[in-house]
# Entry
Amino acid sequence: MKIVFATNNRHKLEEVRQILGTNIEVLSLKDIGCDADIPETGQTLEENALQKARYVNDHYHIGCFADDTGLEVDALNGAPGIYSARYASLVSPTAKAHDSEANMARLLGELGENNNRKARFRTVFALIEEGEGGHTPAERCFEGIVDGQITRQRSGAAGFGYDPIFQPDGYDRTFAELGAGIKNQISHRARATRKLADYLLSKKQQPNQTQ
Ligand code: ITT
# Structure
């Protein structure tokens, strides 16, 4: 089975490919010749994930999924949330979107010495299956959450984004210290990916099943 993952983030692509294994072949945007900067203008993770998946389906008429992920910090009323990629650039004209160092610096600065460090990563995958026989493509969402704490300083070099300052509950190290082996078992994206995989694989086994 082949499906497109509508992301420009190679770390995310790698994580999802590792979790899905060889049963499902995941094509990148590059693989289908798409180099567009797909708009993300929604007010929720769900809206953004659907917007990206719809863009690919509308332009390439192929089954695809997209995710949007946000880091939600309790003491900051859920920020940075949908603004996670461009958190620093919202307040600093010199910071670019996806500048992880600047994003982490802003987050640590906003939290200061606050002892409430509770946070979670939340991922929403939106799947669009190509409609058969002229039917409208079907849309489905799958969510994955991992709860944890924001550390007081960066630790570790693996992963990407906010991984050096996020310590998942039940562990005494950050995602960036735990590395891909553990992150891919317990992360927000791993959980959402497994739900997506279960759905896709159940359909593969029963191709004529009406959903
Ligand atoms: P695409 O929109 O091209 O898929 P992106 O990098 O913008 O890639 P998201 O919108 O899903 O990815 O995520 C927003 C930001 O949240 C991302 O830039 C990272 O800073 C952070 N992030 C997402 N997943 C993360 C993870 O597993 N670990 C650490 N930070 C993560």
